[in-house]
Amino acid sequence: MTLASRALAQLATWPDLRRAVPSCGRGQAVSSAEGEIAHFHSGRDVDLRLTDRAVRRFAKDLRGSGVVRIVPGSQWVTLRLDAASDVDLLLTLVSVALTAQQSWPDPVERPLVGCNDQRGAGFVSADHGRF
User: Fold this and answer.
1) Measuring CA to CA, which residue among 112, 103, 123, 11 is closest to residue 57?
2) Helix, strand, coil % (nearest 5) of the chain?
3) φ and ψ at residue 13, rounded to 5 degrees
C-alpha cells in the first residue's frame, strides 16, 4: 500500500469528504460540498486545492517544507509523499483547505483552473505509478 493510498483511505472516512472522480480525469479524488479538495495522481503525488488567499497566507511555510510545490497563479499545491510525516502534512493541509473553502472562498467570477497535474506542473510528470 502506497502513502497516497493510505492518505486517500483516511480522508475517505472524514465526514465532510467523499470519494470522487477528479475533473482532470486521472487518478482518484476527494471532494467536499464546496468542491474538489484533492487529486491523487500517483502513489506519491497529490494535488490539493487551497484558495488563492490560503496559498498566499501559507506560501512561505509551504515552500520551506520541501514537500510542497506551489505553482504561481494556481489554487492548487502539489505534495510529494515520501514519508509518513508527509501524509500527516497532507491531512493537516486538507483541514486547512476545508476551512479555506468555507472561510476564504475564491471570488465567484474567478474560474477554477485545473489541478497542477493538468497544467503539467507536478513534481515529475513521468511518474505515472498507480496506487
Assistant:
1) 103
2) 35, 20, 45
3) -90, -10
pLDDT in tens, the chain (131 residues): 899 999 999 999 999 999 999 888 888 999 998 888 999 988 899 999 987 888 888 888 888 888 998 888 788 899 999 999 999 999 999 999 998 887 766 555 555 556 776 555 444 433 334 44
**Neighbouring residues of 118: CB distance < 8 A, sequence distance ≥ 6:** 24
The rounded distance, in Å, linking the Cα atoms of 96 and 102 is: 10
Q: Could you give the angle at the alpha carbon of 6 between the alpha carbons of 52 and 106, nearest 5°?
A: 15
User: ∠127-123-43 over CA atoms, to 5°?
Assistant: 45
DSSP per residue over 18-46, as a string?
Answer: EEE--TTSSSEEEEETTEEEEEE-SSSEE
Three-class SS state of 87: helix
Interatomic CA distance for residues 44 and 127, integer angstroms: 8
Q: Which three cell numbers stand for residue 62?
A: 509551504
